[in-house]
Specification:
The chain has 95 residues and is an alpha+beta fold. It is 69% helix and 17% strand. It has two helices and two strands. The chain has a two-stranded antiparallel sheet. Helix 1 crosses helix 2.
């Protein structure tokens, strides 16, 4: 697995990272999204410093991740229920 050394700039700080080549684009994209979120929070809310903006980003990203996880679980459960009903119907037809 190829590893690349990249730097990500977040809130005026540079973070050197060693990442698998396959993850480089994703990390750069996420870093850019965080930078955009920070700018948005600074422009639209009473944000005193970068740490406050980063805390708000963490809350927003954590909330988004939790909602996504809950929706995923609901979709899996719904799909499982449908498969059980289909299987029951097929068993009844096969009798």
């Amino acid at each position: 697995m190829e590893v690349r050394r990249i730097t990500i700039n977040i809130a005026g700080r540079v973070y050197p990272l060693n990442v698998p080549a396959a993850e480089e684009e994703t990390l750069r994209k996420v870093g850019k999204q965080i930078e955009n979120m920070i700018k948005d929070f600074e422009q639209n809310f009473d944000v005193r410093d970068k740490q406050d903006a980063l805390a708000m980003c963490a809350l927003k990203l954590g909330t988004n991740a939790e909602v996504t996880s809950m929706n995923y679980e609901k979709n899996i459960n719904s799909a499982n229920e449908r498969l059980i009903r289909i299987n029951q119907s097929l068993n009844e037809i096969g009798k």
